[in-house]
Amino acid sequence: MRDEIPPGVEEGAVILDGTPIRYVRSGSGPAVALIHGASANLGDMSFGLLPRLAARYTVVAFDRPGHGGSGWPARGGEQLEHQARMLRAALSELGVERAILVGHSYGGAVALAWTLEFPESVAGLLLLGAPSQGWEGGMGLANDLLAHPVTAPWFSWTLPGLMNRMTVSRLVDVLFAPQRPPRGLIAHVGPGRIFTPETLRANAVQLQTLRRQLLAMVPRYPGIRVPVEILHGTEDGVVSYGFHAPPLAAMIPRARLTPLPGVGHMVHHAAPEEVERALARLAAG
C-alpha cells in the first residue's frame, strides 16, 4: 500500500543522474524542506505536519534515497553528505535555492550534513529527535544481517514474509512510546513501501554507517552559523535526549534547545504546536 496524497498536494519526482527522488509539495510562503527518518518515507511527514505547515509555508517533503519512491543511487546512498547533496539538487530543480530544513531522527542527521556542506542553501535548521553524537554499540542483529553483503540478499527477501499487521503495529508502538500513533498513520505511510527487500537493505546500510559519520561531523558543529532549533522528547527511547540534544545545543552558537517533557521519539506527531512555534522563530530570523 502506498501513502495517499491529499487533494491540492503536488506529487512528482526529480531525476538526478538516472535516480528518481520523489517529492510532494504544498502551500505558499517561505520554503521548508521536510526530511523523514529511518524505516519511513515522506508519508510520515505528509500525514499531519505538511498540511499543517502549508498554510504558512511552501513545504516540500522528500523520500530519501532508497526509500519510498526514490531510487538508490549508483554510489554514496549510505552517505549523509551524498543524500544531502541529492536532496539539495532536487530542491533546486523545483526552483528552491534556500530553505529551512526540518529533519526527524535520521533525517535530522541528513539535515545536519546538508547544513555543514551547503550552508548557503540553509535558512534555518529544525531538528526533531535527531541523533548528532557517536554512540557505543551497534544497530542490532537484524540490521547487521540486512547490511552484510553475504546475508542481506536472503534476509531481505525473507523478512517481509514474516511481517504481519500485528508485528508492524508493535514496531510503530515502540517508535511512538509513550504516546500512541495517530489513527490512520500506518495506512498512510504504507508498510508495503517500507518492508521491501530493496528498502530494507538501503535502510540497514544507512544505519550501519551512521555512527561513524556522526563522529566525523561532531568537530564541525561549532562552525554552524545558521539559526538552529532542537526539539527533543525527554522520553525518547530511540534517540536518547540526554546523550544527543544538550551536547549538540552547547556546540552550535545559534542553537536553541526545547526539551519536551513526557514526549517520545515522534515529536512532529506528539507536539506539532511546538514544531510550528520553532519554525516560526526560524522564519522570523
Automatic annotation (TrEMBL):
**GO function terms (MF aspect):** hydrolase activity
**InterPro entries noted in UniProt:** AB_hydrolase_1 (IPR000073), AB_hydrolase_fold (IPR029058), AB_hydrolase_sf (IPR050266), Epox_hydrolase-like (IPR000639)
Question: Keyword Hydrolase: yes or no?
Answer: yes
One Pfam family this sequence matches: Abhydrolase_6
List the keywords (alphabetical).
Hydrolase
Ranges for domain AB hydrolase-1 come to: 34-277
Can you name a GO cellular component term? membrane
Name of protein: Alpha/beta hydrolase
